[in-house]
């Protein structure tokens, strides 16, 4: 039963979340809360991992959640569910594009989706910020600014900015900053 539920729920997420992976976060939050699959904090941890691994966040998140809930077959069901709507829509759009590319109604419909996407992204941002800053203590935060971990993070961010200005290839920037962060973390933090 979990496999069908994973497929169906992620199919809904894939079918109705326009604007990319971040726009699907409000739907995912509601889904995992409704089913009691995980806490918001766990979901946000999955979001962090999904953002830092290669590939689209929607595919990564569905794979991680599916694996936790149903093992490898759960991952397959969730991932197929989230990808299938986009695949089908692209097939239909590609088939009909030549006929409708100059159609004013189609253009208007696509223009109307833009504010919806902004709203979904805004909702995701507010939801994540509310979770992160709940119980926020400014004094503890200010005292914690001068930690070794934050110093390493700031240094890596500065290096990333310098590498970007120097027009380094993005993969080289990722590798260089990862190496610098790992080296400094090992040397300073032990």
Give a written overview of the molecule:
- By secondary structure, the protein is mainly α.
- It has two domains: 2-136, no CATH class; 140-189.
- It has eight helices and no strands.
- It has helices at residues 2-16, 25-35, 40-52, 57-100, 104-133, 138-144, 148-165, 170-189.
- Helix 1 crosses helix 4 (57-100) and helix 7 (148-165) runs antiparallel to helix 8.
- It is globular, with a radius of gyration of 21 Å.
- The relative contact order is 0.10.
- The model has no long low-confidence stretch (mean pLDDT 82).
If you average the pLDDT, what whole number results? 82
Helix-strand category: mainly alpha
Q: Report how far the terminal alpha carbons are from each other.
A: 47 Å
Helix coverage percent: over 70%
Total domains, how many? 2
Described by strand count, sense and barrel closure, the largest sheet is: none
Could you tell me the radius of gyration in angstroms? 21 Å
Number of helices: 8
Shape: globular
Count of extended strands? 0
Order of helices and strands: HHHHHHHH
Report the sheet-strand fraction. Answer: under 5%
Task: List unreliable stretches of 5+ residues.
Answer: none
How is this fold's topology laid out?
Layout: H1 2-16, H2 25-35, H3 40-52, H4 57-100, H5 104-133, H6 138-144, H7 148-165, H8 170-189
